[in-house]
């Protein structure tokens, strides 16, 4: 019911994190691509309210289910600059997009992908619900092959390919000599593309649906035997954003420096000047950077927790001495404690003897007495009755929890009413089920 | 064996108990030196002299290895001699190696050993290795220090008892064009864990047709980070724990050190033995594996990369030579050289004692042995001339190897890549074509391309040689005087020796391993081939990707899998056919054939329907191969074969499904591999029915199945319509 881009992370839409990072990198002309007209309207409304004077944003709508590549195809005519940055709207990260574009331009690459380490710690710290994850191996998202200097992307496997044996082409290995293969990194879905190449690929391969699974692997595969013309005359640069509400940006930045690739003529691709090659680069986010995609409920909870916890510099709030944020207008009853890594939104009220640990509570919530909220996200305008206990759950806006409800690892849909005394564990409750 | 195992275990336990690392170090280090490479790459030279005794810059190779082992702190070396063992032992006995302090050399001799695996098994039985040992072959030149590698090996071993071997590797990027390293060895693909340096994957003898390396998914699941290397060279110096010997004994099929042992350990996940690598950076290590590496290593020695094992430093077995500085390069001279004033000796050249060089001769980048006589106006470039060679006036030698006692008559020319074995005589003005090998011994006629036999050949070479040697020596004179028709035209007037024909398939490989540099045209040819290659790879890749997303991707991979299993069944079919043909030829009893086919079936994991199909296929193949002039004769042949072997076939026809499989197989054959049968389809079907091989049920079911098929598929149903009709009626009547 809420577009994913507008899901609140520490009481701000997740999209705002991306926009902020782009703004910090001085990328100000952007196109936000949203799937579906309805969602587009809401995202557009929010953006124009929040960023009206700071960013130059166009909102474009594409039909549903066209995939990321399809979305770019649809808005291709909007793109004019030499390079395009494509970011997923659900990326919560403090990696500067500027660094990615810089790496991209430095090598005059066809594509530069940002790669970050798989968020292992995030999942395993997920408190009670995370206990399950602890026993699992850290998830594998990609198998990535790079040259020893970790600048060029030589191999990438995604999705179903992970389940199979990895096949690595000898020709590229011969050209490079040494390839580092990493299974502990993942593609963060932030790419810088050469615009003309991207458009050409999208035009030629009309079956490509996803940037991550089709376009990027294709470019990586064909890098030693390029089939695309690299003719992008520098006209200025452009950045673009994309996600499941594909957002794209366009900037008019300083003139690019086209002669840079000459310095890299000795790179793996430069070794055979007779053959047409193109470069696929990577930018590896350092381990200290935070970089997670909001693509599951678990990720949503993790991000919420991390943003008010260890990655709190992202949230943009000032933390109190107790390491938590309580809006001045929030009212707390007597003997109510709000622990560290918590957030209490504007105008929320809490009754007596409540305790909140590692949770986010939205605006204008009414919470009764003797309520425990642990490791949970409570959105705006939620009413929680006395004696409730909420653990590891997500409560959407306008939901109502009557007295003595006990929830563990649940999701409660918007406007849903949980009747008194109910106990649920690991369920998702939404209005339709009624 | 048990006792030794126990002892080894006890020793290991003791080592673990004693915390003092010095205690470990004090155990004397042993080494196994294989004085036989178990290959035939240096033929024809190795038919007469063992490879380890071939001179490398005028010093027998084994001296380099032994000198290094001594310097590296090895206390005891077991020299394993096999081919020409007597020569090796004699040489060692006459050398100083047996009288060194703190360095014992012992020889182990065996004649019936055909591989490194056998050698190690024999050494295990002799029970002489008690601790970690260095495994090396006698053709290795190195100056690396073992201390660090040894230390690492021991520490790993202490932590993890399964770390049985440390391989020494060195950076060396193979040429992307020829796909072979500087030393002429095939490119090597390795996967190494960058943190622990554990070896995870090893592929030499790369299959060029396969464009990809396949890493097992488990490998990546266990190791988040892997380095794939194409830029490393295997130095063939291994530090092994005593377990390695027992592993060879346990796995009696391990022959080749790398191909079997290393790969075996990497694939075997039950025992969990691990191999690690140690990379050397500044020191030298190389194995002389073929003529090209002989050339390259010689040059490295002359250019002093192998210091202290260089011509002007005295180490065991050589006489120090004087260096003369020429520009920036060195040329090694011995004092007792008679050199004409007008002779030009270029850079990077070594000339041995007592060699005479005539006027106006030019020599560059070459090694010339002792007691050679070189006439005037001779041109020698990049060549290796051993001892007591006589080169008369006006000869030209470029990039060749000339063994002891060769006589080159005036004006003879050796084209690049030529190898002249011992005592060959080249006639006047004779031009030896490029890459030819000339020997007094005739080329062994039995040439089996089978890899296994590659090893066997060498040892049999010994026997062969010892019998020939006498006659060869005696007949030497006769041969010259006889100047038999066969030789004369081959090596010119007065020439003695046989030019070995290059065995098939070897021809294209010849330039790869030769002393001569790779010719330009080969390079361009190859780089073009590489382009095509690339194109192929991308083409099929793009074909895959244009067709789309995930779905087609998985389809394609399924195709791959199918291909794999298809491969399997093809192999299976071939094996069955071979078994069957042998059975026919040798009149093997049917029961035995059944047994053999059954074992094949188990090893390929096939169903009995597959067996039935394969057996039937082989029978039909045999029928078609039996000479026949007409279709009726073919039918008769088929009938005969079916009658003879029906018992074999029937043993796989347990159910109706298998019978249908046979019909389908037959149909397929008629369409594809054996079209001659197609007009006979119905008749042979009838024969099969008559012989009770096919029941009417099967035939009818087959016909029913085909009912709905395409018109093209129904050709044979149509053909046998009458027969089927008859069957149907018969069964109805019975009812």
TrEMBL record, chain A:
Protein name, per record: Translation initiation factor eIF2B subunit gamma
Biological function: Acts as a component of the translation initiation factor 2B (eIF2B) complex, which catalyzes the exchange of GDP for GTP on the eukaryotic initiation factor 2 (eIF2) complex gamma subunit. Its guanine nucleotide exchange factor activity is repressed when bound to eIF2 complex phosphorylated on the alpha subunit, thereby limiting the amount of methionyl-initiator methionine tRNA available to the ribosome and consequently global translation is repressed.
Annotated localization: Cytoplasm, Cytosol
Main location: cytoplasm
Family affiliation: Belongs to the eIF-2B gamma/epsilon subunits family.
Domain Nucleotidyl transferase per the UniProt entry, residue ranges: 2-127
GO cellular component, as recorded: cytosol
InterPro entries, A to Z: eIF2B_gamma (IPR051960), LbH_EIF2B3/5 (IPR056764), NTP_transferase_dom (IPR005835), Nucleotide-diphossugar_trans (IPR029044)
Quaternary structure and partners: Component of the translation initiation factor 2B (eIF2B) complex which is a heterodecamer of two sets of five different subunits: alpha, beta, gamma, delta and epsilon. Subunits alpha, beta and delta comprise a regulatory subcomplex and subunits epsilon and gamma comprise a catalytic subcomplex. Within the complex, the hexameric regulatory complex resides at the center, with the two heterodimeric catalytic subcomplexes bound on opposite sides.
Keywords, ordered alphabetically: Cytoplasm, Initiation factor, Protein biosynthesis
Domain EIF2B subunit epsilon/gamma LbH intervals: 327-420
A GO molecular-function descriptor: translation initiation factor activity
Organism: Citrus sinensis (Sweet orange)
TrEMBL record, chain B:
Record organism: Citrus sinensis
Name of this protein: EIF-2B GDP-GTP exchange factor subunit epsilon
Lineage: Eukaryota, Viridiplantae, Streptophyta, Embryophyta, Tracheophyta
